[in-house]
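Tokens in:
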């Protein structure tokens, strides 16, 4: 077996997982040429929550960030994380918007697209895969890893075979919560390598302390690439650190070579950046989360959940609500717990405990039951489906969610022109996903940010929570489960 490839995630998942996605382009650029010179197979720099964060918190144009990074690191392919039909948002967009996004992104320098769907419904990946292929770029089809009675190795392999047929150039195992056990990683990679004729990448998080060992096992099984970060934007809820992985692999025939001096240089550099972002970091994200191991619920979800429970005055019901999560998941077809489904399941579990099972059926949970997000991995519990169908206006959706959406590009261009904003493809796709934030980018800065409202998270903001840090309330982007 050949040397294993390392992709580096410090400029995307590293700070998304450990510093609320707040690293600025200015903080990235000095490190980019060093990262570019080291032999990483790819640099993950874009997508996930970075676009939202650029617009909402940093007042940066995300496409300008990509162009700047491409210029500073021209040799190493740049990777982005794309939520299939949701692009980098939480609802489906029409095909023409997805196609335009991919085209504009490829033109700005994106090389590799990691494409996933929270439900593992491959229909939600089809348009993005086609668009990436049409742009002559690399489409990596991601299989979201989770544990449930329907998430078996044969089921994951079946999905990967489908992704291969759909034209993906490689397969990714996306373990957003860091729950893949080393032996399972080994068996899954072995089976994927045996049954699918494509390179396989494993992406995990070290939340539960399993990440580095899972990589080691996957490397033994023949995985082609694993994704690592740079300390202190590594380990904990982020990817295992590069230095640590190299130490683990010493004498391993597949161990890659990286310049130790440059790694030290990067560590020193990012230690300063981490200090600059201190108010967005938390010791809870840096340590092995034994609660995750006890409750089998992703770490990022647990920490946000505690805040939500506190706001609801339900701290004493924590264990009860956690015990309700597997029940809600089972009723909703064993959906993986990843943004936004983790928030939907968590909130419904809380409502079930507070008001009695399904007495207060949240709209996003109803939408899951009715197929609005796509096909769930397992069937919806018949009694729960009946309840959902009794809601006013309820309609079962058995087609691909985006099939019901009319093209939107002409309208987006018109809206931008009417507002006196740029009307190019980049402007259109950003306007489609973040209309207010995109418009604000072209206006003078607003002095006071709107405070986040407490209470049960409404349907349209399932991804945002209010969090108290050092006695101050801040709004945080809850998107670390990617
Ligand atoms: Co991730």
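Residues out:
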């Amino acid at each position: 077996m050949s040397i294993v490839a390392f992709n580096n995630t410090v400029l995307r998942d590293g700070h998304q997982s450990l510093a609320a996605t707040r690293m600025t382009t200015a903080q990235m650029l000095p490190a980019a040429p060093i990262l570019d010179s080291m032999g990483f197979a790819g640099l993950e720099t874009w997508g996930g929550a970075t676009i939202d964060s650029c617009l909402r918190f940093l007042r940066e144009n995300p496409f300008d960030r990509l162009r700047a990074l491409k210029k500073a690191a021209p040799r190493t392919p740049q990777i982005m994380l794309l939520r299939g039909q949701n692009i980098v948002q939480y609802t489906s967009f029409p095909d023409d918007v997805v196609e335009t996004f991919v085209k504009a992104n490829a033109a700005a320098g994106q090389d590799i697209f990691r494409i996933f769907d929270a439900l593992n419904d491959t229909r939600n990946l089809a348009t993005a895969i086609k668009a990436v292929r049409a742009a002559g770029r690399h489409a990596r089809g991601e299989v979201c890893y989770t544990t449930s009675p329907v998430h078996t190795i044969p089921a994951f392999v079946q999905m990967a075979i489908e992704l291969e047929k759909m034209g993906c150039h490689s397969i990714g195992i996306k373990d957003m919560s860091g729950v893949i056990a080393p032996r399972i990683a080994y068996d899954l990679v072995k089976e994927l390598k045996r049954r699918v004729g494509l390179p396989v990448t494993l992406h995990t998080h070290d939340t539960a302390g399993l990440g580095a060992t899972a990589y080691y096992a996957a490397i033994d099984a023949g995985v082609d690439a694993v994704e690592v970060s740079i300390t202190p934007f590594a380990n904990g809820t982020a990817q295992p650190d590069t230095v640590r992985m190299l130490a683990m692999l010493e004498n391993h025939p597949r161990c890659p070579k990286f310049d130790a001096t440059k790694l030290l240089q990067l560590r020193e550099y990012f230690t300063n950046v981490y200090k600059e972002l201190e108010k967005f970091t938390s010791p809870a994200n840096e340590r092995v989360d034994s609660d995750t191991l006890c409750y089998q619920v992703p770490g990022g979800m647990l920490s946000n959940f505690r805040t939500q429970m506190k706001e609801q005055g339900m701290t004493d019901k924590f264990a009860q609500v956690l015990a309700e999560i597997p029940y809600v998941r089972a009723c909703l077809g064993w959906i993986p717990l990843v943004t936004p489904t983790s928030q939907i399941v968590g909130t419904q579990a809380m409502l079930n405990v507070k008001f009695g099972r399904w007495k207060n059926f949240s709209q996003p949970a109803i939408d899951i039951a009715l197929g609005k997000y796509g096909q769930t991995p397992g069937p919806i519990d018949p009694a729960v489906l009946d309840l959902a169908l009794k809601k006013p206006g309820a309609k079962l959706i058995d087609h691909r969610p985006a099939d019901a959406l009319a093209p939107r590009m002409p309208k987006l261009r018109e809206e931008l022109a009417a507002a006196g904003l740029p009307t190019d493809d980049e402007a259109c796709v950003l306007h489609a996903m973040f209309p207010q934030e995109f418009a604000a980018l072209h206006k003078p800065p607003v002095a006071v940010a709107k405070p986040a409202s407490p209470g049960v998270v409404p349907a349209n903001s399932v991804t945002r929570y209010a969090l108290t840090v050092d006695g101050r309330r801040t709004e945080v982007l809850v998107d670390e489960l990617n």
